[in-house]
Specification:
5 helices; Pyruvate Kinase, Chain: A, domain 1; 13% strand; Helix Hairpins
Length: 301
């Protein structure tokens, strides 16, 4: 059994760690609240952008596709996956769950997949496990900005237009609430305006009314083709930006839960160790009393 001094040292060490985890939980709760507000603030914008994109893509005279990023290719030879994870740990199973979901998705595909990572944790795990990581973006700020997402969007857009990849997917953790998160892999390119199921951030534009959208004809200035050249790349940027926001809110909420649980576990462990220390102290006192009584009995005899 450990001595009283050893138990006191362990209690002091655990109490110091619990102060750190408690502070991290408070910081993560604040960041998660801010990230949640950002996520909710952009969802209405995404819905309106999706509605405009649907109407533009449905205008007569645009041909079968209207824009190269809307063209679905029949022969898929290569694919790309944008993997969004965190730069830091201490978030429970947040990063490992997302990487596991990405691995499951890659194994299900029958074509080579090149991986583009946002976040150091995903980069390190994918490289360590032998996947083809062609680019990594570790300097996305917190909170993220659209300008910070543009290089990612530009890279995958150029690769798709040049034929280097025939499909682009994005893996991110969808934020549901402070306690619930869902690792997801959704399609990013090509865009399917009239069938958005399975596309990135589709769950946040599900309330858009598409009834009769192909029958509604509007007069656009400039022409719909010119507008599509601007709107479609920007909508791709919006999808990536929204996905990063969802992942960031999920990361902060996961870290809050992990640190809060660590603080609670530390309190329970301190309680157990305090009881053991009291037992050790009582045992030491009892032993000393027995020694005194034995010595007194020896002297009396």
């Amino acid at each position: 059994m450990a001595t009283e001094r050893e138990l006191s040292r362990r209690i002091r060490s655990i109490r110091n760690i619990s102060q750190v985890t408690n502070a991290l939980a408070a910081v993560s709760a604040s960041k998660a609240s801010r990230a949640q507000r950002q996520v909710e603030a952009t969802r209405d914008y995404a819905s309106k952008a999706f509605e405009i994109l649907n109407n533009l893509a449905s205008q007569p005279g645009l041909g079968s596709s209207g824009h190269p990023l809307l063209t679905v290719r029949s022969d898929i030879k290569n694919a790309a996956l944008i993997l969004v994870t965190g730069n830091r740990g201490l978030a429970g199973a947040y990063n490992s769950n997302m990487v596991a979901r990405a691995e499951q998705f890659i194994r299900a595909l029958t074509v080579p997949v090149q991986v583009i990572t946002i976040g150091r944790k995903g980069r390190d795990l994918m490289i360590r496990r032998g996947y083809n990581v062609v680019a990594t973006f570790d300097d996305v700020p917190d909170p993220p900005s659209v300008l910070g997402i543009i290089p990612v969007a530009q890279m995958v857009t150029d690769d798709y237009l040049s034929g280097k990849v025939d499909e682009v997917f994005i893996g991110y953790t969808d934020f549901i609430n402070l306690l619930s998160r869902l690792p997801s892999v959704k399609q990013l390119l090509p865009l399917r305006p009239l069938d958005f199921s399975g596309m990135a951030v589709a769950e946040h534009v599900k309330d858009v009314d598409l009834a009769g959208v192909s029958e509604r004809v509007y007069t656009y200035e400039p022409e719909p083709n010119e507008l599509l050249d601007v709107i479609v790349p920007r909508f791709t940027q919006l999808q990536i930006y929204q996905s990063v926001l969802e992942a960031l809110a999920s990361e902060h909420s996961a870290r809050y839960v992990a640190m809060n649980n660590a603080t609670d576990n530390a309190a329970e462990l301190i309680e157990v160790l305090t009881l053991d220390r009291n037992k050790a102290r009582q045992s030491s006192i009892t032993s000393e009393i027995l020694d005194i009584v034995g010595g007194a009995a020896a002297l009396a005899s």
